[in-house]
Amino acid sequence: MKLMLDGMGGDHAPASQIEGAALAGSILDDEIVITGDEKTLEAELKKYKKVPPNISIMHASEVVGMNEDPTSAYRQKKNSSLMVAVKMVATGKAAAVISAGNSGAIMTAALLDIKRIEGIARPAIAVLFPTLKGRAVILDVGANVDSKPINLLQFAEMGRVYVQEVLGVESPRIGLISIGEEDNKGNELTIEAFNLLKKYEKNFIGNIEGRDIPLGKADVIVCDGFLGNVLLKFGEGVAEMLFKLIKSSLKNHPVAWLSLPFLWTAIKDIRKRADYSEVGGAPLLGVKGSCFICHGRSDAKAIKNALIKASTYVKHNTTEKIEESIKGFGNGKY
Amino acid sequence: MKLMLDGMGGDHAPASQIEGAALAGSILDDEIVITGDEKTLEAELKKYKKVPPNISIMHASEVVGMNEDPTSAYRQKKNSSLMVAVKMVATGKAAAVISAGNSGAIMTAALLDIKRIEGIARPAIAVLFPTLKGRAVILDVGANVDSKPINLLQFAEMGRVYVQEVLGVESPRIGLISIGEEDNKGNELTIEAFNLLKKYEKNFIGNIEGRDIPLGKADVIVCDGFLGNVLLKFGEGVAEMLFKLIKSSLKNHPVAWLSLPFLWTAIKDIRKRADYSEVGGAPLLGVKGSCFICHGRSDAKAIKNALIKASTYVKHNTTEKIEESIKGFGNGKY
Question: Taking CA atoms, what residue in A is nearest to B250?
Fold first, then answer.
């Protein structure tokens, strides 16, 4: 299969993109095509003595800026590394697109070119979050704001398929984020979504509270994209704060200060579990093709992992399985 | 001044309530009146050799259960420890009510008996959250769901007065939780609230993202109660997960395992900063009286701290200052 990597999108592009591709290229038997300015990419590629034979470059003269308006970027930069990569998937010439570029522009291009799966009102970004019991998928984390109850139901179903296929969990427990475990607790959106989920998802475990997420109470965690996005970033911030506080607290206990090197090794283990570079990209579920959105600050390892994940995602026919599961789902009443 | 303590509300009532009152009684010169079953409370009080003279008991025959429906509790249990305590504040006979009981019932009673400050559409619960730079106040964390933009503007103004009076921050920086720092990022609610805040709050620093909260970017953090509640509980869960992971990671590093006792002392320091028992209760801002809602699992220390905080709150005339600041605020257009 052919994986399209946006070579110019991201804070560390193209260096991390080229290195990530080189790393993944020696592991995967897929073809990795890197889009972007030919000369720049070739110069970067020359730094590696042994470039795997499954890596190639596809010229794209423009670059979409990280803060550019997504809609104008889509209209005006058809020859950008991002749009060229998306187009290859949209026209069926490639299996997946992976980009650490402007995420709004990736979503716009995916929606308009690759298009939504029939019946899906809104695609969703699904990220892996570390829990005490392993990992959970939270969706949506930013593709949508002001979601409707039906959107949340579809997020749940797409998340279920993704967790079953890619994480190999047989019967994923689906939870809805709310402010109380009782059925009637929540806001207008979640109370209505609760009823839909109860009706159509047999593994729906009900409302879960914020505290239940890291404790691993559910495998698929459903929420509106505004909440999901704030939660994800808040979690990063809380972890950062705690690690800094631990460090400065230990300074006040001279003997404990000696233990810091050992503690650091432990914290590295934990960071690894929570690290976006380990997790790689997050799929945009609900479009008719495979589209992985990576963190803007992705390093080579993150790009490598995203390529591997995209390959697994495609090999498991995840998009087709979502398409299949959505047909007639919820009595087709949406 | 007279502080009313609900002696029967909370997971550890009345033992923690009595002990907390005894602890606070020896520090404060205020009168502490504990409501609840006279015999039970007196028996509990007898356990203490030296009961401060400023502590007294007010009989209340009923108890509101932790999971009881707030509205029926309000209608049917006028003689409960909770309702009797609230009534004392509502009738001007006491300065503040403090309860670790059914928080829905406390809010209902406060709204219906103590009543809202004129011009305040919806009161809000304000909690202190530890940050790298000290502390921030987040509101609302659960009094309201499906807030309107005008509610968020009023939360900001009430939070500003509270932080100025009780935390002594001269010009508190006000931030609005959203999914991007740019002015136009957010959902329907926050985009409209952004414009109101920009117009009426001179220390409004704009949108802040989830990560900025623990990093201490703002002193007053404004959001809808659904989001605030989920965030607060999620933060608890993330901290819990990280502490557990650190512990089990250290087990894999035998030398590091030896450092655990020292590390534990450090973690205790941090927990102390984040601990609800240190913070005590959270005020319900926007009612015509002082009402502190404590965590259901409050121990004696939490109750003690809530009583001290309520006393400071009243001494600073915080309620009156909110009343004053809201008059004509935002051109009185709400």
Answer: A266
Span A318-329, average pLDDT: 91
pLDDT given for residue A332 in this prediction = 59
Of B190, B213, B246, the CB nearest to A270: B246
Measure the CA–CA gap between A105 and B149, rounded to whole angstroms: 29
Provide the whole-model pTM.
0.92
Whether residue A256 is predicted with pLDDT greater than 70 in this model: the reply is no
* Closest approach of B86 to chain A, Cα-based (Å): 25
Inter-chain CB pairs, A–B, below 8 Å: 186
Least confident interval from A154-158, B141-145, B148-152: B141-145
Distance CA B334, CA A37 (A): 55
The answer to whether B136 contacts chain A (CB < 8 Å) is no
| Burial classification of residue B331, based on how many CB atoms lie within 10 Å of its CB (0-12 exposed, 13-18 middle, 19 or more buried) | exposed
Which residues in chain A touch residue B246, judged by CB atoms under 8 angstroms apart?
Answer: 246, 263, 266-267, 270
Provide the edge-to-edge strand list for the sheet that holds A2-6.
Answer: A55-59, A31-36, A2-6, A96-99, A290-293, A282-285, A124-131, A134-139, A220-222, A174-177, A204-208
The complex's ipTM works out to: 0.91
